[in-house]
Design a protein that fits this description.
The protein has about 650 residues and is α/β, with parallel strands linked by helices. Helices cover about 50% and strands about 10% of the residues.
C-alpha cells in the first residue's frame, strides 16, 4: 500500500518512503503481507490444550456458518469468554507488574536503599497514606513511606479482603461491586484465578467466566495501575502543565539522540538526570556532538514528558521509523509494546538497541541490566554507549522537519487546582458547565495504534467530531500523542476545533480542549476524575450516571481490553474500533454489548467507523443528560442590580 494511504501523519509517510527506498521492512509492510486469521480474530479458536486447536465456528461451502463444540465439548460461548478473560488477565498482568516494579523501588527508598531515587511530592505522600488508612499524625516521612511501601506491595499478594484503593470509588459503585461479588482480593490472586478458570475443564459458564473478567480488570484499574500512578507521583513528582513538542522533528542532527521506549519511568527518569552530568557531556563533545537530546516513544515518552517536558519522537507505529531517520544513536527499551523488528531495523542503520529489563530481552541485542540500586550509574553507562556511537553514523541523518507544540501534565490534582485554585480546589466549575450545557459531556479517548487501520486517523476523526459537539476529551497513551501531532493539545485548539460552549470554558480556564493525562497506566487518573465529578454533586450518584463515555479507536494490545473492562465495570460506556475479539459469538456479544449494563451500568460497543463511533458517544451522553434532567438549554441571564437585590432579599 502507498505510504500516503497508511497514515495521516506527514512524518510517518515521509519515513515510510525512506524505509522503502532503504529496503527496510516495517510493521506497515508486514501488516499488508500477513492477513489476520478469520477464525482466531473472532474468538472462535481454542488452543488451551493439546487436543486442539479447535476451530468451533466456520463457514461451509454454501457460505453458511457451522457451529461445533471443541473436542472436550466446550461450546463457542465458553471458548469466546475464555479467550476474552485471558486477554484481560494478560493486560492486567502487564500493568500490574509495572506497578509492582514501582512499589519495589518505592519500598527501597523508604528503607534508605533507593540509591539516587527520592521522594519528591510530600503532599501526595500524605494523601496516599490517608488513602491506605494510615494514621499520619506525628509520623516522619520515612515512617509513612515504609508503611505505604509495605501496604502497596501487599496489595499484589493479598489473599483475602479487598484492595485498598477500591475505597476511592463512589460509595454507590463500591456497594454495587460488593453485591455482584467482583471486588478484587489481591492483584496476583485474580490474575492467577483467571488463568485457572480458563484452563481446560474448569469454568464452563460464559457469564461466570466474564464475571471474573470484571473482577480481574478492577484489580488492574483500581489496583496495579492506580498503585503505579500514585507511587510514581510521589517518587518523581505529580505532573503539572508544561509545554513541549512532538514528532520525529524533535530529533537533532548534531546531537547524540537517545530514544527511550517502553512503559516504566524508573529507567527513563535516570536517563534524563544522567544527561545533565558534566562528565557525560564532555564525552559527547569529544565525539563531535553539540549535546545530548533525549526523546521518547510510547508511554515511557509520556512519563518523562509529563514531568520534565522531554519531547516525544512518536507513538507506537513510529518506533521503527525513528531509527529510519539514521539519527538515533541509541534506543533504550524496557517493557511492553517493543517490536522485535527493531533489531533488524537498527542493523540497517547505526543505532545501538539496548534492552534493560530481565523480563524483556531480545535475541541479537545488547542487554545492559538496569541496576535499581545504582540507577544513575546504569543510566550513565547507557549514555556513554550512545556518545561513542555518534561518530559511527552511516550517512547524513534524514530528519523530517515537522514538530508540533503541545501542553501536557494534567493530573487529577492539577485539574482540581486549575478549576479552583489553592484554597478552593474543586471540580465545581466543570460540573456547573456540564449542567448548564456549555460542556455537553466528557469522553476518554485512549489506546494504541494498529496498522490494520490508517495510522492516527481514527483517533483524530473521533476527537474532532467530539470537540465540535462540545465534548471535553481526556486522553492517555499513544492516542494522546496522535492528538498532539494534530495540534489538538494546545489552548489555541479550543477556538479552532471546539464548539462554542467548550471553547468558552477552555479559553476562560486556559486549557486545551484535549487534556493529556499521562501514560496508559494513568487511565487511573481518568477514573479519579470521573469519581471527582460524582462526588462534587449534581451529576448523579455513580460513575454510570455521568454524561461520559470511553473509546479506543485503534487499539491492539491486551492491555487495552483490560482497561476497557475496568471502565465498563466502573460504569462507563466503552467503544472499541479496529477489531473486536468476540465477533464470532453472538451470545457473548449480546452480553458484553447489552446485558452487562444491567449488572454494572456500563457496557461495551464495537464500531470501526470513527464518525459513527462519535455519534454513538453523543447519543449516550445525551441520554445521560436526559436522565439527569439537564438536557434542556438554560438561558443565560445578565443580572442587573434590581434583580440582585431581589435575590438577596429572598
Amino acid at each position: 500500500m502507498e505510504p500516503k494511504k497508511r497514515s495521516i501523519c506527514p512524518t510517518t509517510v515521509e519515513m515510510l518512503k525512506k524505509a522503502g527506498s532503504d529496503g527496510t521492512n516495517t510493521a506497515f509492510d508486514r501488516s499488508d503481507a500477513l492477513l489476520p486469521c478469520p477464525i482466531g480474530s473472532q474468538g472462535n479458536c481454542c488452543k488451551i490444550c493439546a487436543m486442539g486447536p479447535c476451530r468451533v465456528s466456520h463457514m461451509n461451502e454454501e457460505g453458511q456458518e457451522i457451529e461445533n463444540c471443541g473436542v472436550c465439548g466446550a461450546t463457542p460461548s465458553t471458548i469466546a469468554a475464555r479467550n476474552f478473560l485471558r486477554m484481560i488477565a494478560a493486560g492486567a498482568s502487564a500493568h500490574s507488574d509495572h506497578g509492582r516494579a514501582v512499589a519495589e523501588v518505592f519500598n527501597a527508598v523508604a528503607h534508605g536503599k533507593g540509591g539516587d531515587y527520592e521522594i519528591k511530592d510530600m503532599k501526595k505522600l500524605y494523601q496516599v497514606a490517608m488513602d491506605f488508612g494510615i494514621d499520619i499524625e506525628d509520623k516522619s516521612t520515612s515512617d509513612l513511606a515504609k508503611e505505604i511501601g509495605a501496604l502497596a506491595l501487599g496489595e499484589f499478594g493479598k489473599q483475602e479482603g479487598q484492595l485498598n484503593f477500591i475505597k476511592k470509588a463512589p460509595l454507590k459503585r463500591q456497594k454495587l461491586w460488593e453485591e455482584k461479588g467482583v471486588i478484587p482480593r489481591g492483584v496476583d490472586r485474580e490474575i492467577v484465578e483467571a488463568l485457572h478458570r480458563t484452563n481446560m475443564g474448569v469454568d464452563q459458564d460464559y457469564k461466570n467466566i466474564l464475571q471474573h473478567g470484571a473482577r480481574t480488570s478492577l484489580a488492574d484499574g483500581w489496583g496495579g495501575s492506580m498503585i503505579a500512578t500514585e507511587l510514581q507521583d510521589i517518587l518523581f513528582g505529580t505532573p503539572y502543565p508544561l509545554l513541549s513538542k512532538i514528532n520525529l522533528g524533535v530529533l537533532k542532527p548534531n546531537k547524540v539522540n537517545v530514544v527511550v521506549h517502553g512503559h516504566e519511568p524508573i529507567l527513563s527518569e535516570m536517563i534524563v538526570q544522567a544527561s545533565k552530568d558534566e562528565e557525560i557531556n564532555e564525552l559527547v563533545r569529544e565525539k563531535g556532538a553539540d549535546g545530548i537530546n533525549i526523546a521518547g516513544i510510547c508511554c515511557t515518552a509520556n512519563e518523562i514528558l509529563m514531568r520534565h517536558g522531554i519531547p516525544i519522537a512518536g507513538n507506537f507505529l513510529q518506533q521503527e521509523l525513528a531509527l529510519v531517520t539514521g539519527a538515533v544513536d541509541a534506543m533504550v527499551v524496557d517493557v511492553q509494546c517493543i517490536m522485535q523488528s527493531l533489531e533488524s531495523v537498527a542493523n540497517c542503520y547505526h543505532t545501538k538497541l539496548i534492552t534493560t529489563s530481565p523480563r524483556a530481552k531480545m535475541t541479537g541485542v545488547q542487554h545492559m541490566e538496569f541496576d535499581e540500586h545504582q540507577p544513575l550509574e546504569s543510566a550513565k553507562a547507557i549514555l556513554r554507549i550512545a556518545a561513542e556511537n555518534f561518530p559511527k553514523r552511516k550517512a547524513e541523518p534524514h530528519i523530517p522537519q515537522e514538530e508540533m507544540d503541545l501542553v501536557a501534565g494534567f493530573s487529577h490534582e492539577t485539574i482540581n487546582y486549575l478549576l479552583g485554585g489553592v484554597f478552593r480546589a474543586s471540580y465545581r466549575p466543570l460540573n456547573d458547565n456540564i449542567i448548564n450545557g456549555r460542556i455537553r459531556g466528557v469522553a476518554g479517548v485512549v489506546g494504541c495504534n494498529n496498522p490494520r487501520v490508517v495510522h492516527d486517523s481514527a483517533h483524530i476523526t473521533l476527537i474532532k467530531e467530539l470537540l465540535k459537539n462540545d465534548v471535553l476529551v481526556l486522553q492517555t497513551g499513544c492516542s494522546a500523542m496522535a492528538a498532539a501531532k494534530a495540534g489538538l493539545l494546545t489552548p489555541e485548539a479550543a477556538k479552532k476545533y471546539a464548539g462554542e460552549g467548550l471553547a468558552e470554558v477552555c479559553e476562560t480556564v486556559g486549557i486545551p480542549p484535549v487534556i493529556h493525562m499521562g501514560s496508559c497506566v494513568d487511565n487511573s487518573r481518568i477514573l479519579m476524575a470521573a469519581t471527582a465529578l460524582v462526588k462534587e454533586g449534581g451529576l448523579g450518584e455513580d460513575i454510570s450516571d455521568l454524561p461520559a463515555a470511553g473509546a479506543a479507536p485503534e487499539w491492539m494490545s491486551e492491555k487495552a481490553v483490560a482497561i476497557g473492562q475496568y471502565f465498563v465495570t466502573s460504569g462507563v460506556y466503552t467503544i472499541f474500533g479496529a477489531t473486536w475479539p468476540t465477533l464470532g459469538n453472538q451470545e457473548v456479544n449480546d452480553y458484553l454489548f447489552d446485558n452487562i449494563s444491567e449488572e454494572f451500568g456500563g457496557k461495551w460497543a464495537f464500531e470501526p467507523d470513527p464518525k459513527k463511533m462519535a455519534q454513538l458517544i453523543l447519543n449516550h451522553i445525551d441520554a445521560k443528560r436526559k436522565e439527569l434532567k439537564i438536557d434542556k438549554a438554560r438561558e443565560r441571564v445578565l443580572y442587573d442590580m434590581d434583580m440582585r437585590r431581589e435575590m438577596a432579599s429572598q
